[in-house]
Amino acid sequence: MSCTRRRVIDTLRDVADTREIDVSRMEHAYLVRYGVMHDVSRFSSDTADFERGQSVVIRTHRGIELGQVLLRIPRPSDPGDGSTPASSAVILRSAGPGDLERGLRADLERPHHFTSCRHIMESLDWPVELIDVEVLLDPGRVVLHYLGPRPLDLAGLLATFRSRCGLDVMLEPVGLESPGSLDHVSEALGQGHCGAGCGDRGAGAGCGSSPGLTRGGCSDCGVKRILASRRPIPSR
Questions:
Q1: Which pLDDT does position 216 carry in this prediction?
Q2: Helices 155-165 and 97-123: angle between axes, nearest 10 degrees
Q3: Neighbouring residues of 102: CB distance < 8 A, sequence distance ≥ 6
């Protein structure tokens, strides 16, 4: 395939990937691993055909990127008030050869971007240590993982990246829980108040009162429900 034709196809995909999607109409959900920090979160999908280990194109809070399917899970219950579901992260499609090639090119660009971004941070005398860099499928979108104080005044730094490198930079502090953290996995797996005796080690009131779980429930009870819903393996 010629470079011109490939760029046209990539551009058309970029436009399609940014379209508005009604997540409330998606009837399936999966746990997907993504990013260099191996974040795991719940993603909505309109198909039940994805299998464990399959590469997919996903839309996260960061942009368009590649992910790997880990597990199909129960879809979150509809709050019934017409509000948007808690997670707007979606699986857009199975990753094709073109997507995987773009992902490979993005990986090859990481060392260059790491060096450039570190030099910019040092020139501005920012009190941060750059840990790693990710290049997403979104054109020019780069995620910087750093150690340092938070929150930071980002306006000047982001403007510098745009003017010097033409990059749309997003900063993610290392060690701070993010929308892709395990807290969201717990929420995805453990919906509903499980009650006392669920295994939660909190105040003894059961995982329904565990802090940080917006819907109540815990990942332990969620896993038990998933396992209980599966067919038993016949004994030989």
A1: 42
A2: 120
A3: 10, 137
